[in-house]
């Protein structure tokens, strides 16, 4: 009698987009908790991040020791190291998402990064939809989302997203956003055919948002607030 040798399959490589989302969630999770509890290191981190807004990753030396990108340079067993192009895209996406979150969170006493779930969407399209009346649409606000989707490059996209974030933070009840999810999408945006894929996800979340009668459509805080990235690859 013979027995087949048991072999264990190598662990599946984590997509770069997901690695960027997880790293963004780890950074924001710690800073957001500290900021909401008025811890000096977190308050200082937000101030430093805001000074890096609108600049390319690596352009602000003060952020070199603040944004830890070491996990992007480590290679899991059986996986290949990221290429130089992948690293640049990942660092750009992480920098953009973190600085946008810092701008959003500034002077707000509730979490502005919120985990996306199907029951409580927190992607960009859903967040923009929450700015609109429950019984209709606001054309100027919707056009901002469309305009962001047609940005020719990441720098322009980041600036247009900042304009949207300004509306989210200044709403009567500030509207949160899943910045881990956004970080992954900003990575994807820089890839071939990435802008079209990201636009589809933003549009899907905008149109599929469903508001439950017993849920405040603009509630920014809740007992189930988490800072982990969404695991639904089609979520937006």
Automatic annotation (TrEMBL):
Gene: casB
InterPro entries documented for this protein: CRISPR-assoc_prot_Cse2 (IPR013382), Cse2_sf (IPR038287)
Cited Gene3D superfamilies: CRISPR-associated protein Cse2 (1.10.520.40)
Region Disordered, annotated ranges: 212-236
Domain of life according to the entry: Bacteria
UniProt-recorded name of the protein: Type I-E CRISPR-associated protein Cse2/CasB
Transmembrane segments: none
Any Pfam family the entry gives: CRISPR_Cse2
């Amino acid at each position: 009698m013979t027995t087949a040798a048991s072999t264990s399959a190598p662990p599946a490589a984590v997509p770069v987009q997901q690695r960027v989302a997880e790293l963004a969630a780890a950074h924001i999770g710690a800073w957001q908790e500290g900021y909401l509890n008025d811890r000096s290191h977190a308050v200082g981190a937000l101030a430093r991040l805001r000074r890096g807004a609108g600049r390319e990753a690596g352009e602000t030396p003060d952020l070199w020791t603040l944004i830890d990108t070491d996990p992007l340079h480590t290679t899991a067993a059986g996986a290949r190291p990221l290429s130089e192009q992948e690293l640049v895209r990942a660092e750009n996406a992480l920098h953009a998402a973190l600085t946008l979150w810092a701008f959003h969170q500034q002077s707000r006493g509730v979490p502005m990064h919120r985990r996306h779930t199907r029951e409580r969407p927190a992607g960009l399209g859903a967040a923009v939809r929450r700015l609109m009346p429950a019984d209709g649409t606001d054309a100027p606000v919707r056009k901002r989302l469309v305009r962001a989707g047609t940005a020719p490059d990441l720098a322009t996209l980041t600036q247009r997203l900042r304009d949207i974030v300004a509306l989210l933070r200044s709403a009567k009840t500030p509207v949160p956003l899943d910045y881990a999810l956004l970080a992954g999408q900003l990575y994807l945006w820089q890839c071939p055919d990435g802008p079209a894929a990201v636009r589809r996800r933003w549009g899907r979340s905008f149109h599929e948002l469903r508001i439950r009668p017993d849920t405040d459509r603009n509630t920014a805080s809740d007992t189930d607030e988490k800072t982990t990235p969404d695991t639904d690859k089609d979520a937006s």
